User: Fold these one by one.
Assistant:
Number 1:
Amino acid sequence: MGQLKILYFAWVRERIGRDEETLPRPPAGATVAQLLDQLAATSAGHAEAFADRARLRAALDQSFVPLDTPVGEARELAIFPPVTGG
Amino acid sequence: MRVSAEDFDPGAELARLEALPGGAIASFTGLVRDDGGLTALHLEHYPAMTERAIADIVAQACARWPLLGVTVIHRHGTLPVGARIVFVGTASSHRVASLEACAFLIDWLKVSAPFWKQERRSDGTRGWVEAAGADDARAKAWGK
């Protein structure tokens, strides 16, 4: 059972009040969305940041994934708003 | 390909592409636009992912057009109005390939490179830029 590092960017980071945290890897089959449900219960900031899922994007081990993707064996999860570079 | 807080010299970048044998160079330079009251844009990024995401877009462009050279530079940090943010340059033997690949690269950079812009205004307020649905549509219009 490994650890999962979670990174936050832009207003997700600001609302949560931290740029990363580490959790035990969730059980097999658990999706990013289910992990967000669990995290939303940990603080008001998490709940606010994760309230509107349509405004969130995710990456597992530095690749974009839909929120219904199982976390699996990934080591790093990032949660952020839609990107606005270029 | 470079991701850096440092400024760049578009002329020098173009000269490097012109030194290749192709004969058809296209480029795009994006600057911080003066949107009335804006003093600077702050660009945050996801360092571990940024280079991989840009390399992936460059690889797609190279698979699609016969390119002899590609340069992508994207800055991060706090950039004042008028500062350069991004440069895309392409070299090919024919104008259609270089022009189309350049447009493809900047369209895809906008929707799949992990950068976030925050506006800093002269009244002291800050606000994260919202993603534009039109950008998504433009990128998707290139198809797979």
Number 2:
Amino acid sequence: MKKSFFILLLSVCLVNLANAQKFFTKAGRIDFNATAPSSPETIQAVNRTVTCVLDVANGNMQFAVLIKGFTFERALMQEHFNENYMESDKFPKAEFKGVVSNNATVNYTKNGTYAVTVKGKLTIHGQTNDVEASGKIVVQDGSVNATASFSVLLTDYKVDIPSLVADKVNKAAKIEVACNLEPLKS
Amino acid sequence: MKKKLKIIVPLVLLAAALGGWYAYTEYNRKPASMENSPADFVTNTATLLGDFEENEAKANQQYLNRVIEVEGAIRAVSKDQTGLYTVTLGDDGSLSSVRCSVDSIFSEQASGLESGGGVTVRGVCTGFLADPLLGSDVTLVRCAIIKK
């Protein structure tokens, strides 16, 4: 009986220790911009319901985002984005699973700004590709602010742009990620 | 012939003007405010979460992109760095919640909400995210605070 209790206590302590190394948010922000240089209108959207988990022990990082959560200034653009391009009924989520490749250079216990590189696999529109992004991690009084910026080629994710609007939509969409992560408490 | 033209030309011009007006308003149409949008579903936190946890694909078909009016207990109210609010509905002991991203025009009402109280929120359902570590969430966006 005593042995079982000790094992249970040890398990709880280990889970707590593991969770203390993880930071998360469910209110991260992704800005998307696919405006072609010659386009008279701006094609941009924002999603502020991004889920992100960072394991500071090994740098493992994971994002999940609901495509219908991207809001545009114009309703028509938002409808085209969901129905014609991203097919969000069929592919409701996008995901990233990767790692901060220079995680060892970040001191998560000391306030500071650290330049990082994130590598991993990004799944959009049912297609998965390797991506690499440069970013920044700001450690401030126990919270971690992570930002990154990168571009994705729409053709890599089989997002077809009709020739009628091809001069307005950039072939490469710019993605900016910003997450204010808090320690995960068990 | 002249008589016919006198009728046809104004009609064509009128049709062109109406078409142009429709195209202009449709192009500039903003996403509808949830304050006056009729709800497709009126429900509560437990039912909405239960539907997604039981069968996500079926719930997606039912709720995605629909206007949902949901009533529930407030677990948390948070403000991001840009001053926008998220109201989280759910029981304290559960890992599941309904996360309501509040429309900026309702920031003042959201700022007056407190954990433990009850609220009715109306917003557009964008889906369900489940994580073994973080729990599962149904997300509503562009939310209006309907009843405190």
Number 3:
Amino acid sequence: MSRIRQFLRPDQIRELSLLLIIVLIVLFFGGQIDNYYSPRTFQRISSAVMIILVVAVGETMVMITRNIDLSVSAIVGVTAYVAGEQVSLHKDMTPLMVLLLAIGLGAVLGLINGLLVAYGNIPAIVSTLGTLAIYRGVLVEYGRGANVLVRDLPDWLVDLPRANLFSIGEIDIRLLFGVAVAVVLVFHLVLVFLPYGRRLYAIGSNPDAARMLGLPARRVVLIAFVLCGALSGLGGFIYLARFGTISFNAAQGLHMQVIAAVVVGGVSVVGGSGTMFGMLLGAVLMGILEQSLIRMQINEFWKDAIFGLFILVAVASDALVMNRVRDMWARAAIRMREAAVPKE
Amino acid sequence: MIGKRDWRGLLRWETLLAVILVLVIAANISMSEHYLGVNNFINLFQLSIEKIILALIMAFIIINAEIDLSVASLMGLSACLFAWLYAKDVPPEVAILAALVMGAICGAFNGFWIAYAGLPSLVVTLASLVMFRGGARILLEDRSIGLFPQWFNNLGQPNFVGPFSFGIIVFAVLFVISLIVLHFTAFGRYVYIIGNNRHAARYAGIKVRQTKMILFTVSGLVASLGGLLLAARLGTVRANLAEEFELDVITMVLLGGVSIFGGTGTLIGVGLSILVVLNLRNGMSLANYSGNIQTAVVGVLLIASVLLPNLLRDARRWQRLGFRSREVLSAEEEAQETQPTDTVGTPANS
């Protein structure tokens, strides 16, 4: 038992059990659906997950600081719409310019959120619920009901989702999916190795203590919101490339899926814990569920109910099981330390 | 200095709301001659009657330092359950009863996880928001069900009793009951104390879990009632009924001076903020602004209702302490703020 404790932390146990659930679910669907283990299934799941994955990276950082961003769906919608509109008006825009436009606009919207939360002292749930309505309302008024259409988009953008990065056997890794995974990887490293990443955890687990230590809590939270906005902008760009036709209610309700992925992936809503790897597993699990339920011809109307149930089960198991596991680990660590100190 | 203190006593949130209300009404009168008619005034309540009924119970929950995001989905679910049962030839009275019972059970389900399992209400009700909406989708899929009996549809129409609709009467009765319960009973005091400090409340012998459980169960029941009223008013039910109503409901409560951290706020303030939001939306409709712009303005109001008190407090601190660093002084200031109000008016550095 003590061996296990040395090599596994509670969070890793959670991630391993999530991995186990994913394997079980894949085996289950494999038995139910003909021809399930095919490159096509991987293709469907990976392209469904990539947008959520990119946005969820930002949401993870915000939630680690004990905040929440409900406005990400509106940011994805606004950036996808504005970038799509601009590129159809100005056909000579280079890919880099479109990408920077989406990310920059997202960062500005995230900056507004961050200023309200960090410097206006408005609880994140209130301010982002407000900006969710504001961003979407302004977009509807700005677009005046007109859609961005696929035929107005340049060819490079329409072909982008089919661009291949490399192939493993018959499985093609698409460029955009590769980008999403790279973003997860980069920010995983940021969270683990950079001082900024460690500060996010410090602020989330105890904001008062972090401030007394002299951490620039406001600035760190502000940057987390700006990054979340910028990543949502990247998500908007991918959304534009994938769907082509963008209406004013594009990506509506996406924030629920993103928060579901993050929470199922083990990021605590009260801040201070969670990893990018866990979030990746959460997003993949939700993606597999969604796509497989569609393939099984189960009524799509069941999707929301199952999603909601999964969020609740994840949070409840965290509270009921994982807290106990963490206690066990902490107590064992104390015992070991006491044993190591020689008695006087 | 005495005069200054009197002036400060008037500077309550409710006074500010009353001033805003007068301004909005004045602007509306100048915009349209139809505004002052009795019909418009009844319409004003009638068109958002479900939201303002929900705002009453939401005020209790937010004062109790919790939040219920699932009310709008539960409204949809209960209306869908009613319509689904009705389409299956269940007598409408039984269907109404079933929808109300289901609402209470769903509320108790939220309450169980929040009060007894100790999960944060934000996630629990976020999960049940998705789940209840999913339940509504399972029941109705993409159909819409209508053609309810005439007496049921009449519940949602004006001129039910005199010029008033059934919903307005329900709201009036619930408002009086809530006012009495929140401000004049022991239960109401418990709600405030738990919202201020749930640990202290527990040590004082207040049944924290039971109180939270009651609040969420009643919230479910009221949401279900609101869903039925909405179904009666619209005459048809779809699975996306009442989607995103929670934004308006929470805005009304927070704009009424209820702190999102719990423990403060009055129902008078919530009543005033309901009038402000209703008149503002009505005025914008008269001025031909679209529903989306109205929603965006409500979002601005929501943010402003929290931001303005924060800025006011900061301004008062700066007035008192000069522009010294806030971080360093925070402990000192908190000690000062807990002192009797007599010292508040005098500058600290004089």
Number 4:
Amino acid sequence: MSTDTLSSDKTAATSLPIIGRSATRIDGPLKVSGVARYSSDFHFPGMLYAVPVCARIASGTIQWIDTAAAAAMPGVQKIYTRENIGTFYRVPKSSKAQIDERRPPLEDDEVRYYGQYVAMVVADTFEQATAAADKVVATYAGTKAPDVRMKLSPDEKPETDTERGDPDKAFGKAAVTVDHVYTTPPETHNPIELHASVALWDGERFTLYETSQAIMNHRAVMAKMLGVPQENLRVITEYLGSGFGGKLWPWPHALLAAAAARELHRPIKLVVTRQMMFHNVGHRTNTQQRVRLGAGKDGKLVSLQQDFIQHSSRLDDTKEDCGEATGFLYSTPNLRVTSAFARRDIAPNTSMRGPGAVPGLYAVESAMDELAIALKMDPVELRLINEPEIDESKNIPFSSRHLKECLTTGAETFGWSKRNPAVGSMRDKGVILGWGMAACSWIASRADATASVMINADGSVRVASGTQDIGTGTYTMLAQMVSELIGVDMDKVKVVIGDSSLPAGPFSGGSMATASLIPAVAEASREAIEQLLKSASESDAAFAKIDADELAFTDGRVHRKNESADRGRRFEDVLAAARLGHVEGSGKAKGTMNDKHPKYSSHSYGAHFVEVSWEPAIAQLRVRRVVSVIDAGKIINPMTGRNQIEGAVTMGIGMALFEETSYDARNGMAINSNLADYVMVTHADAPDIDVVFLDYPDTKLNEMGARGIGEIGIAGLAAAVTAAVHHATGIRVRDLPVHVEDLLVSKVA
Amino acid sequence: MEPFTYSRASQTRDAIAAAASASTAQQGAEVRFVAGGTTLIDLMKLNVERPQQVVDINHLPLSEVETLADGRLKIGALVRNSDLAHHPVVQRDYAVLSEALLAGASAQLRNMASTGGNLLQRTRCNYFRDADMPCNKREPGSGCSAIKGANRNLAILGTSDHCIATNPSDMNVALAALEAVIVVQGTQGERQVPIDAFFLLPGTTPQHETVLQPGDLITHVLLPAPVKGARSHYLKLRDRASYEFALASAAVVFATDAGKISHVRIALGGVGTKPWRSSDAEKALQGHSPTPENFAAAAAVALRDAQPQSENAFKVDLAQRCLTQALATVANV
């Protein structure tokens, strides 16, 4: 697949047999047999159940909370309100600890969004706590109809996020222009595992079983907010039933559970309900984006402008950075991205798979499709001719960028050359076909990471890091890495993660965990091997009088450098000879994500090609086929990697066609707060998906050249779907999701 | 959820006696029968249903499907949706029913849900399901939140100023087209109610959804003997491909004789406050040629009286397309 200019990338990489192998998940059997314990699966003697009481208004002041009836109910141990919950501290903005809802629960009497916690019942059973929580009556004053309007205008003057040239002037003089507003609705994360906390307090220390995508950050935040030293707080997430970003940073329920555990000296379990998931643990904000493109008649972009507005909560300002990929995606001398907030009486927003770039690319890539039509140019060709040489927003080279190959390979795999661009012109057995495509990009970066690797006398190897597997395959990927680096079979590798008492590992977000762990694990492995060689030199008669630097370690064997590995000794024999239980190496790698002046622009790229079918007789639209070509560096495990892309593509179809949280204008409640009414993709909607990995290692990012793959697959997908919808129906949907009511006016028959 | 007592009925008369003490068999009933529980338990958890007593009828002998001597099909009220859908006689003679059942819910729910229970499935109106919001069906006189709220999924036929809630069942639509008869055992003995008379329009009393009285137990559903030469079909349109309530659906039973339509029964789902039988559309087709133009004209008749709300005007068009297509499918034109 490589061409002459790309082959240097390939040869620079190590071509290791286990890295790049489609290994099945080492945790798979534990999950399908029910042995894997998720956070809410933990039970402890004497455990009590906590159920929060949620505000039924979105804006007002609590006058009083009547707990008398609830307190008298069977099994009720305690009811907490602002009066008796105790003190929670805040997280300083200057700290690295991340939280999207900064106001601690029950801090004051103001209600700022529907569902906000106003009290909490603790009882002997979940059922008793639930029943009593229903009987807690809050009385409010100054209740106002909330502002939950989806149409947005900036609260303050928009900020310029990136700018070059004079985009207004260039747009005004451009031969061909497009100028449209695109909107994306609020979306709610619906991982099948509910958020949960099981909190234990031993009089001095907390142990918290949490549903967290970032246990180290969770520890840092909880320690600050609970007012205890970090050493006295341990966070455990052995398995996560997915998070999609909603479980990145802590949410108020975790504090409530911990506070009750400390005060009552009993283990506390708190499981957030599905309905609460629509208010109390974040969502993807809605966005409204004006995109203006100007091009010459040759299709070369002369101006690109993206002005976006998002809603935010009354107190927080979590940015949905829709312009994340805009500055470097295409070559253009004139560009500006601006951003603005519009505050609403809606709960705080947070990251959702591909935050920023995913709604952002929906708008920019839709505009590119509209520009291609205005130019009467093929949309693939339009992207190809606007390929930049360097990252023009930062004037630095790309570490590894193969977007052009994604486009051409995708077009070839999909059969794009057979496309007739005329609307409604392609048919198959009575249905109309629509073909659309879009390019995509996502961050390739590393977070700080440390790891430990122990080579054990029993022939096993242990790798440990305070990170977590959110269902993406981190357990398996770590086992593959260590298997490769130490030279043992994967079943001899014990992977220990999900515990904040381990060496601090990366969060699982931004598609960074794999890339971040590689250098730390590699260094830890090297250090462990060095110690092994020293031990062999010092204590193993087989290597008497041979310096450690004359020894090598290959495929699990210590041997002389001038001899082959099979003449050496297995490491367990070396350790036995030295009377060592193990040698341990530690690795530490500083992240790149906060580099102010990076030398390279590192991103993943991809291209999606989508086929929809349109049956005008019954106004039925379905996605039939997707080809996604992904440039995400070296793929450690193509099987779990493909699974990530397929899942992301499927979620992208949901974004394009189904997902939308609706808030009632009267009380601010999410009207569709259940799995029947919040429409997501089902198996029956999932199309035939063909995933192609280009597999060019990005060795400037780490030594294995692997980037993350959790998010790239959803970026751009919705734009490819709406482009296909337009091709089939002639209807350009600029407000997601596409509804049947948008398409009923189609003239295509 | 409110505390309640639970008992298991081993004989039909015990179940009836237990329920007869309630003041109503409609919204607010103090006694509820539970079969599959797929609606009742859900609504109890939401505090929408607050029975003081739940009578488990799963052990009553009502799980048989039986062809009667006169050709009718007698379906026990406890026959599970999945069993009914896969019953060979149903698949052969009442395809519309099998298709409707399989278009509903998920496999897991269909394995639990019963025939009698599905007849009494409650609306999915979000405001009916939220005990904090006004709802005339749940709390008579409190007002309708849906008319000025989220009503995309709600009804356009048979509505009133008091309620626009949709009957959500797929099975009921097929039963309406099949002219099913509901067999009810009550304190006064057995009676048979044609399905169209079984369901009530909301009018000023949307809390009353059926003719059931305290103590009434649905024991069976009777289907008329299959019409000779008839074909039937259920078409359901929704946003996603599975596990979603209908935006619009159509059940049709259809036969021709010498090139003219000799028998046609039409019911619509997703658009009515009850399973929506359209006799006018049937009359428009009876004796006429089975052409796409005639089907479209009949569909227009079926939706003639539609009264859309702020978010669901599209259903008028969509339901017509649905019915036209369903008719075209059975007529094979």
